[in-house]
Design brief:
The strands form six sheets. Strands 12, 13, 15, 16 and 17 form a five-stranded antiparallel β-sheet that branches. A four-stranded antiparallel β-sheet has the order 1-8-5-6. A four-stranded antiparallel β-sheet has the order 19-18-20-21, with no helix packed on it. It contains one helix and 21 strands. It folds into three domains: 87 residues, no CATH class; 87 residues, Immunoglobulins (Immunoglobulin-like, Sandwich), CATH 2.60.40; 51 residues, no CATH class.
């Protein structure tokens, strides 16, 4: 009985040792149509040629291409993967070595979209269509207003090679309106679209309140997007409508941006 116990113990230790020699290196990212290249060290284990990596799994499926080499390619581009699709790669390897990924950056999200079309639709919805999104990166929508580009909306990207359409609420003014979209990827590279000029035919908005004696409310002739700043340039109010509640503002001078123009006002 004692001999049997010793044999069992040795067997368990041997199995544990075998499994303890295998480690896993994990990679995560998004598929961008590119292949991954791996440096796979050769092991000195007496007879025969052995390499560090023992097996590879991609999205929980075994990778069955040739890996018994000191350097090889993981042919992601030949797999049934969609652009922008999440990808997980497990490199199972011997514990006494470490494989090296030569180009791990190809799994990080890059901005590759192209703007296909942009137009203004019903209820001031800006609709734009893109193609070739290799990653699900957010789009920032900007409008040229008051002499500079301002952010008007952020929308989550869908990713994928096919055309993708997005709709965001904007506040155009009468006449010429300029819009553009942009993305920023992990390299801090800004991918900016060309400007799109869209025309709107509506009544121009004017201020109905005496700007030298503003008290509790400021009235416009119609609905407009506005930003109000104090004399130090700090934003104190922002919104959309045909009136502004100014009752909580401290007395003093303010700068009001509205429609496609601006004005100074004095809070009494």
């Amino acid at each position: 009985m004692k001999k049997f116990t010793v044999i069992c113990f040795l067997l368990i230790m041997s199995i544990s040792t075998i499994f303890a020699t295998i480690e896993t290196t994990k990679l995560e990212g998004v598929f961008q149509g590119l292949d991954l290249y791996v440096n796979n060290p050769m092991l000195d284990e007496g007879e025969g040629i052995n390499y560090c990596i023992t097996s590879i799994e991609i999205n929980n499926e075994p990778y069955n291409d040739v890996i018994n080499s000191s350097a090889f390619r993981i042919a992601l581009s030949e797999m049934p993967l969609e652009l922008g699709e999440p990808i997980k790669i497990f490199l199972n390897h011997e514990a006494n070595c470490k494989p090296r990924i030569i180009n791990p950056e190809i799994l990080k999200p890059l901005s590759t979209y192209e703007l296909v079309d942009m137009n203004l639709g019903y209820e001031n919805l800006l609709e734009f269509t893109t193609k070739g999104e290799s990653a699900k990166l957010s789009f920032k929508v900007q409008q040229y207003r008051w002499g500079s580009w301002i952010d008007v909306a952020v929308v989550a990207g869908k990713g994928g090679p096919d055309n993708q359409t997005y709709k965001v609420k904007v506040y155009p003014h009468n006449g010429e309106n300029k819009f553009r979209i942009l993305q920023k990827d992990h390299l801090h590279k800004v991918n900016m679209s060309d400007e799109k000029i869209l025309y709107v035919n509506k009544d121009s908005v004017t201020i109905m309140t005496n700007l030298k004696k503003v008290k509790k409310e400021l009235l416009f002739s119609g609905e407009t997007y506005y930003i109000m700043q104090n004399e130090f340039g700090e934003e104190v109010l922002e919104g959309y409508g045909d009136n502004i509640n100014t009752s909580e503002l401290e007395k003093g001078m303010y700068y009001l941006r509205y429609s496609n123009t601006w004005a100074e006002l004095k809070k009494k």
